Amino acid sequence: MKIMIIGAGVGGTSAGIALKNLGHDVVIYDKMRENRPVGAALSLWSNGVKVLNWLGLGREVAALGGRMDHMAYLDGHTGEQLCRFSLEPVTRQTGQRPYPVARADLQALLMRTFGMERIHLGMQMVAVSDDGHTVTATFADGSTDTADMLIGADGARSITRDHVTRDGGDTPRIERTYSGYTNFNGLIPADPRIGPADQWTTYVAEGKRAAVMPIEGDRFYFWFDVPQPAGLPYDRSYGTAPLVAAFGGWAPGVQALLGAIDPEVSLNRVEIWDIDPFHTWARGRVAILGDAAHNTAPDIGQGACSALEDTFALAIAVATNTVSVEDTLRRYERSRTERAGDLVLRARKRGDETHGYDPDATAAWYESLRGADGAGIIRGIVGNIEGSPINLGVGAI
């Protein structure tokens, strides 16, 4: 069977590897012209790592991952440590160590593994049609390609989602929702003034966060969350000025972080949006995957992991259901929408708590961190993992 995938991100390339491993003729198209992903790094929690292990990439992913042994919260104003605890229970309870990884490094690994000769960059899909026998994708340059199945892993502004969710009319039914904050992120050399090289360190105050995670190469992935309206003007020439304005009076560790950022090397600004959960992921021979299906705020670190879960579920459906392409994609849809939608809502709830939208709730969260042993936080992290399809119905074992 020939399968077209639109989108060469984590979801699209992982799905490409899985479907190619099943013996199908798979081709990937993406509008990007080079590997320049949005966002500097991502959290691969145990469920996401397990999918990559299943794809045969366990050793390579472990080499890309930072060693994150501990987690700590600090008062953003004073630098006082509120709590610090081991993340070993996550590994013990789930059977897999989590890894923060540079997004470009992971995406490059997935693209190489799939095969660059079957990835066509600079190809923006503008339309999809399905005649019941084949699917046709039309691209901005006027070219077309046909396949037996098309998977749209084309991101938060998915053209494929528009096709799948139209209900007999011309207007797509799905709209994005602003999460209320902007995220700044990038990579810097690890620096003990900010936090230990084996620790996820987060400074919190005023509904804002400044955090670092260790990744391969003695580097930190950093991010700042700034609650603010959508659509504020920003130009790359501003550099770190918005961060200095928002965090200039914060603790010495945050000042060291601000001073380490080279905007010319690594600084991204992303308004955070998500999509209300919905349950129409497939239409005929076309289905969606990843952010196209469940655009999720990063507050629980499950966005990429959820896309990898989609890959696992899609491949299992393709491998085990033989009635028709349409039936296979409906079964994939039914296996994923509830779980993925639940993670979207969990991330949204977490973001509401941490970003000061309800000041009393955020103040209570800060107070709960003081002297915490981490058990509740570990329970939340494992709770996000244990419902994964990669665990084959046996919880977090």
UniProtKB/TrEMBL annotation:
InterPro entries reported for this sequence: FAD-bd, FAD-dep_Monooxygenase_BioMet, FAD/NAD-bd_sf, HpxO
Pathway participation: Purine metabolism; urate degradation
Reactions catalysed, as given in the entry: urate + NADH + O2 + H(+) = 5-hydroxyisourate + NAD(+) + H2O
Cofactor(s) named in the record: FAD
Record domain FAD-binding: where: 2-344
UniProt key word rRNA-binding: no
Protein family (similarity comment): Belongs to the FAD-dependent urate hydroxylase family.
Species lineage: Bacteria, Bacillati, Actinomycetota, Actinomycetes, Micrococcales
UniProt feature coiled coil, ranges: none
Domain of life according to the entry: Bacteria
The EC number(s) this enzyme carries: 1.14.13.113
Keywords in alphabetical order: FAD, Flavoprotein, Monooxygenase, Oxidoreductase, Purine metabolism
Protein name according to UniProt: FAD-dependent urate hydroxylase
